[in-house]
């Protein structure tokens, strides 16, 4: 299976926009696909509250599209009384002490958290409010879905930037990433799901060529049979 590093994913996205894809269309696709996946897997459950955490970059944009799509489907796809909340980490002047109280209220009775804090562009340790948000997510009893990758995880190396979200599911857009399977990746990602957002196959073949994942079936085909001694 072909994987995509952070740089390779960005190259594919840029090539698709250069070829005429409308700006932000991939973000819209990612949000719609995520919404469809959530509805398919959770619409029958008696949830009280879904909390969507949106960061400042493209991953936060994905999260806001998820919120937009979910809000329009609450009445038709979920039980009455489900509450959808969206929290952005762009809160000016909010101290860590106030943030702890704020998040404590937001996480009260939350059944599902959608982690859209940081995506594949994260390249430095979390600190301040962002670190506190990840701590609170991991301390919560809610189920967690990470968008594209768990916040705080390096998608190339699998090393956590000090701390990373521990997700139950990671919904990876377009291609799976090598960091999912290395270092802290497995413990952070939970179950990994690839969502097809329309990456062109020819671009994938041309631009994502550094990392491959080989499973048991491949190993059985190419490795010699071990002779018992």
Give me some keywords for this one.
alpha/beta, globular, 16% strand, 229 residues, six-stranded parallel sheet, 9 helices
Summary?
The protein is of the alpha/beta class and 229 residues long. Helix content is 40%, strand content 16%.
Structure report:
- The protein is an alpha/beta fold.
- Helix content is 40%, strand content 16%.
- The chain is built from nine helices and eight strands.
- The protein has helices spanning 6-18, 25-42, 58-71, 74-77, 96-107, 128-139, 185-189, 201-207, 216-222; strands spanning 2-3, 49-54, 83-88, 112-116, 143-147, 169-173, 191-195, 211-212.
- The strands form two sheets. A six-stranded parallel β-sheet has the order 3-2-4-5-6-7. It has a two-stranded antiparallel sheet with strand order 1-8.
- Helix 5 (96-107) packs parallel to helix 6 (128-139).
- The longest helix has 18 residues, at 25-42.
- It starts with a strand and ends in a 7-residue tail after the last helix.
